[in-house]
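We emphasize that the prediction below concerns an isolated chain of 339 residues; any contacts that depend on oligomerization or on bound cofactors are therefore not represented. The input was used exactly as deposited, without trimming of termini.
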Amino acid sequence: MRLALTLSYSGAQMSLDMEKVLEAERLGFDSVWSAESYGSDAVTPAAWIAGRTTRIHVGTGIMQIGGRTPAATAMTAMTLDALSGGRFRLGLGVSNPQVVEGWHGQPFGRPLARTREYVEIVRRVFRREKALDFRGQYYQIPYAGPDATGLGKPLKSILHGRAEIPIYLAAVGPRNVALAAEIADGWIPTFFSPRYMKSFREWLDGGFRARGGPPARFDIMPSVAVVVGDDVAACRSPVKAKLALYVGGMGARGRNFYNDIARRYGYEEAAKTVQDLYLAGRKAEAEAAVPDAFADEVALCGPRERIRERLSEWTASGVTTLLISGDRLALTTMAELVL
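Result of the prediction step, given as a token string:
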């Protein structure tokens, strides 16, 4: 099992802990991944990191599909891959209706159909087999709408890039996970539970069957918070705060993908309570309502030996890369336990 480092998007001020990135590279981490929501973007930090490192691979975790055309994303990926010496990995995701429509001003639509078209166009740009000509439900290239000039023509990328730049999809629901297995090179789940791997495997196998069989290599890379310390309750605290934010407030009532995850794992009552409290502005109470068992299921918290014991479940689940979020102690601890 490999290790990767994930970096959060910005708060009010943009900062990037390059010392932590360089430490991850020194420790033997396989890759480092940027992030974006509706503040800092995922691409600029990835470029910055690629320019400051020599070995570690760099990925976007994730670039929002609603924020960029497929061709623009392909151009960015090919450019970063070329400048980094073939170290770039393209992570994509649909985000959620609140961000896509409320921030990017784009229709959320049918995310599976949009993602399938998007990835196909990006791969065609990478391969350069012929000029780009695509007719789909969401993307028509060249554009041929009622306001088109009629002057557009199929084009082929000037840049000759690596045809097989890896594409990862962030996905949480059954059909999204199956789609990742069908069309992508890796899967990035959030709030992943190794206990639920039997169901995940069924979803993945469905995608592999649609693909014609599993690829030689497919990266299962869940993001996992690692908080090391003697006080287990204190270590759980930041994990529960994030769970309350996502389960309670990241989406609308009845349309929150992360709330669905909690319910899927068997925390139906807690998911409802957390969402009710969070949407009522009672955030501290929402955090307190997150079950300890839920936090322990999706994160690694506590003393080193406790993390070692719980890590075996992750290793046995079939995960190929652990995408770690945490401080430098978390990085060194995981490197010692895994690498």
